[in-house]
């Protein structure tokens, strides 16, 4: 039987063909399958033929002539049943595709699907609340029909269980999952009415078909402490426990470094190197050191934990790490990519203990130019576990206790600040975009309840570490590119010109001009625009909208550059404890440094890189979504005792149903329903994304300052509802 991964690889190959023609043997060679799986492949191609994805010309020859009407992408649903497809490839389909409820088939919110697109003429009326104004017009709208679900977003559905005497059912907590799920009593895990449960779907929804499921775990009642973490873990498929094989392998690893392991490596144990991390950090990927050379140049040493020495290919540890793709960080806890025995033990660069590293030694001149670089396998002994707060105190407060406590390191940190400024100025000159937006920092009491949400501090120590890691990543990317590859790049493609123009028009209406040179926008143009916003009320709001016009950074086997950093080659090298791509890049770098690898290893890896890039990008996005979900829930919990209070806010986005606002003081978002606008009759204007009152002409549009009152805080759905005062 073909695996899901093999089917996806076959489909990606078919859709990548330039001339649209291929044979059965072509797909066999791509998948490298034996005779036992060939019948399964032929059945799969027959399925694609029946669905219109491909067309069989002869017995073993196919064409993708009809593929111009097929688009793959991620489905975003509305609670009323309809949805939109966000295409995977904007070059083939620039706009999101509307999917009517009748065309959803068995797809659910968040699924990656294949859609057949068509054009449909629809009547259009203009005016307030659909009132007829002038002649009726018609316009053509692109619609889609789901042909096939390529990948399920959520392995389980989380919802509230209702013990109906005849037909027990689950109402999903995510209102974008539009179907209630029927559950039989024998599949109910003895759940009680009102409890939150996780269920897998056994019969998918469809036309005239009610979805059915099986409860896999009872999570508890909505007000149980910590239930939000169990909800998010199930909803986003975050494995908390490691496999027994991975735990056994981790348990067999040494707790300390032996002389044999250190032999043959460059010895940095007499060098002054330190780690700089947050107060709550438990695993330390990177340590840094710095010297001024007699020439006046800087010699920067960036030492990264040699995780690949302990996590070998083909092991259970590697399989678990790849499946997770990344660690997941919540405000007060984390789900690590590696077992704690590695992430907080033998791989963590703790002070005053010997650790294995991969070291980047980079010589930089006083203008920030890299004049020499080399990479070696090394061994270090960190002198101190520093925090951002303590380093910032040393550099900004001459009378601080930290300056006295770390007197022997003060010169090192002052030199680091000097190089940081040099590197930062160099990045600025080439046009790198730095939004420097304040992020929310949640403070908890002893019971785990959020008591305060404040802007997270980003001080000089954060900037030092950031500049050093960016430089190391860039140097590794250049080295691997020069070697001829393969390389797993971190890319950030140029933004969609149409989205940028829309943003530029909106910003201009607010008095901020986004200028361009020679007919296109460069990173430097965005950099200059951000500089204009410094300290303004609109800064966070406009920068947020600008980010929405950008492409999403991702991993790729092809080098498409990094637009935001304004660099031609970039990769991730500095965090192998928490990111799988960095672990893979370490293996590539060590192979280029002369580590023995089995014959054909690079060639086989090059074939797998597109799949690895897609998987790790997907896991990163999934982790980001899970982190945002927990953050939303925590914010709603924080606001739950503030119902009835009033706040100053700014309008973030608008739609027919109402508009979203962000509170200026708490980094909290909520929704103002259109029905809550009671002082006038308001109509929604789609072109300007605004609500305008018929009599008083009061406007609510993107960027408007409003005074709102909190009407409800629903912790279960993580939703805050406001009304305008």
Could you walk me through the main structural features you see in this protein, from its secondary elements to its overall organization?
- The chain is α+β, with helices and mostly antiparallel strands.
- Helix content is 30%, strand content 27%.
- It has 17 helices and 34 strands.
- The strands form ten sheets. Strands 6-5-4-7-8 form a five-stranded antiparallel sheet, with no helix packed on it. It has a five-stranded mixed beta barrel with strand order 9-10-11-13-12.
- A hairpin with a 4-residue loop joins β33 (705-714) and β34 (719-724).
- α4 (227-235) runs antiparallel to α17, α5 crosses α7 (316-324) and α11 packs across α12 (460-482).
- The longest helix has 39 residues, at 601-639.
- The protein is globular and about 75 Å long.
- The protein starts with a helix and ends with a strand.
- The model is unreliable at 125-136 (pLDDT under 50).
The portion of residues assigned to helices is 25-40%
Mean pLDDT: 89
Q: Biggest sheet, open or closed, and with what strands and sense?
A: 5 strands, antiparallel
How large a portion of the residues is in β-strands, by DSSP E? 25-35%
Rg computed from alpha carbons, rounded to a whole number of angstroms: 28 Å
- Envelope shape: globular
Content-based structural category: alpha+beta
> Tally the helices: what do you get?
17
Gap between N and C termini: 62 Å
């Amino acid at each position: 039987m073909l695996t899901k991964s093999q089917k996806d690889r076959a489909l990606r190959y078919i859709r990548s063909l330039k001339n649209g023609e291929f044979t059965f043997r072509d797909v066999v060679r791509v998948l490298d399958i034996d005779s036992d799986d060939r019948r399964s492949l032929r059945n799969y191609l027959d399925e694609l033929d029946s669905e219109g994805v491909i067309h069989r010309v002869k017995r073993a020859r196919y064409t993708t002539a009809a593929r111009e009407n097929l688009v793959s992408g991620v489905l975003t649903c509305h609670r009323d049943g309809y949805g939109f497809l966000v295409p995977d490839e904007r070059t083939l389909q620039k706009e999101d595709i509307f999917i009517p409820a009748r065309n959803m088939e068995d797809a659910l919110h968040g699924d990656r699907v294949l859609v057949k697109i068509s054009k449909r003429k629809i009547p259009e009326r203009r005016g307030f609340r659909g009132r007829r104004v002038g002649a009726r017009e018609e316009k053509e709208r692109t619609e889609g029909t789901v042909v096939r679900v390529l990948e399920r977003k959520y392995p389980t559905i989380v919802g509230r269980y209702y013990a109906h005497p005849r037909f027990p059912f689950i109402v999903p907590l995510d209102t974008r999952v539009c179907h209630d799920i029927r559950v039989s009593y024998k599949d109910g895990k003895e759940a009680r009415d009102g409890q939150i449960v996780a269920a897998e779907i056994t019969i998918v929804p469809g036309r005239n078909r009610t979805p059915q499921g099986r409860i896999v775990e009872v999570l508890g009642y909505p007000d149980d402490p910590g239930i939000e973490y169990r909800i998010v873990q199930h909803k986003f498929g975050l494995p908390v426990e490691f496999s027994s094989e991975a735990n056994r392998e981790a348990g067999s690893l040494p707790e300390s470094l032996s002389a044999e392991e250190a032999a043959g490596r460059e010895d940095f144990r007499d060098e002054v190197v330190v780690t700089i991390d947050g107060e709550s950090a438990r695993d330390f990927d990177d340590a840094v050191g710095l010297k001024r050379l007699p020439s006046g140049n800087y010699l920067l040493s960036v030492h990264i934990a040699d995780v690949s020495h302990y996590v070998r290919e083909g092991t259970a540890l590697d399989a678990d790490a790849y499946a997770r793709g990344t660690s997941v960080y919540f405000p007060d806890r984390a789900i690590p990519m590696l077992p704690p025995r590695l992430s907080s033990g033998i791989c963590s660069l703790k002070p005053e203990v010997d650790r294995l590293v991969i070291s980047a030694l980079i010589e930089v001149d006083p203008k920030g130019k890299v004049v020499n670089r080399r990479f070696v396998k090394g061994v270090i002994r960190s002198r101190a576990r520093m925090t951002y707060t303590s380093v910032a105190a040393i550099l900004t407060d001459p009378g601080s206790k930290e300056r006295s406590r770390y007197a022997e390191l003060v010169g090192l940190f002052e030199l680091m600040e000097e190089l940081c400024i040099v590197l930062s100025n160099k990045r600025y000159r080439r046009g790198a975009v730095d939004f420097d937006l304040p992020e929310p920092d949640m403070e908890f009491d002893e019971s785990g309840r959020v008591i305060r949400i404040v802007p997270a501090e980003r001080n000089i120590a954060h900037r030092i570490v950031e500049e050093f890691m960016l430089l190391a990543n860039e140097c590794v990317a250049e080295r691997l590119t020069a070697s001829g590859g393969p390389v797993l790049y971190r890319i950030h493609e140029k933004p969609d010109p149409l989205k940028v123009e829309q943003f530029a028009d909106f910003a201009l209406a607010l008095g901020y001009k986004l200028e361009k040179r020679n007919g296109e926008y460069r990173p430097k143009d965005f950099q200059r625009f951000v500089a204009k916003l410094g300290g303004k009320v609109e800064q966070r709001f406009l920068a947020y909208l600008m980010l929405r016009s950008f492409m999403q950074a991702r991993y790729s086997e092809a080098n498409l550059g990094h637009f935001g950093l304004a660099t031609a080659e970039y990769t991730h090298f500095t965090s192998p404890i928490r990111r799988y791509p960095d672990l893979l890049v370490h293996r590539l770098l060590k192979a280029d440094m002369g580590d023995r690898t089995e014959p054909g290893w690079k060639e086989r890896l090059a074939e797998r890189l597109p799949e690895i890039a897609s998987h790790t990008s997907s896991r990163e996005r999934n982790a980001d979504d899970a982190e945002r979900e927990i953050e939303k829930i925590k914010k709603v919990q924080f606001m739950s005792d503030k119902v009835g209070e009033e706040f100053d806010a700014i309008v973030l986005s608008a739609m027919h149903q109402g508009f979203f606002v962000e509170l200026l003081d708490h980094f909290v978002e909520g929704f103002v329903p259109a029905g809550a606008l009671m002082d006038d009759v308001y109509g929604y204007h789609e072109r300007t994304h605004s609500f305008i009152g018929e009599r008083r002409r009061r406007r609510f549009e993107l960027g408007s300052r409003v005074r709102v009152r909190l009407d409800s805080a629903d912790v279960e759905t993580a939703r805050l509802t406001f009304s305008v005062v």
